[in-house]
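Lab manual, section 2.4: Encoding a predicted structure.

Procedure: take the sequence of the chain (149 residues), apply the prediction step described in section 2.3, and record the output as structure tokens. A sample record is shown.
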Amino acid sequence: MDGFTCKTCNLECGTCVTSADECLTCKDESRSPSNCLCPDGKWDNIGLTCETCAPKCKLCESATSCNTCTDSSREAPDCLCEHGFLDKEGLTCESCNRRCATCVETVNNCHTCIDENRSVPDCLCYDGKYEDLVSYECKDCDDKCATCT
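Recorded output:
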């Protein structure tokens, strides 16, 4: 022996040079050869393989926990649509009708309204009120009117 000792490469490396963490090749071919990290859209399964993230995840740490979502209107770690958006088949988030605080099934089917002066599912103003077309607030009709526009 000439003074060199063989050491085991880290778990992700197929072969390594200089140190256990300096990979020359990776065990999993989908990993980046320079550092053996999983690429975007994949997560590290205990150093063994790179598994595919859920479709709504851009970066993830497991099959169910996203670090970054594919759609900017989704929030990590579960990548649900933000408040006021409708999940369109797990692919995109579509903005609910402006009168809806939240919506279900369609963007016009309000689950909750933007204020307490409206009724679900369409979130129109209650009788005795009208919608101000600038502020979208429900305002009181004149006392002499049952309904107004």
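Check your result against the sample. The chain has two domains: 1-52, 96-149.
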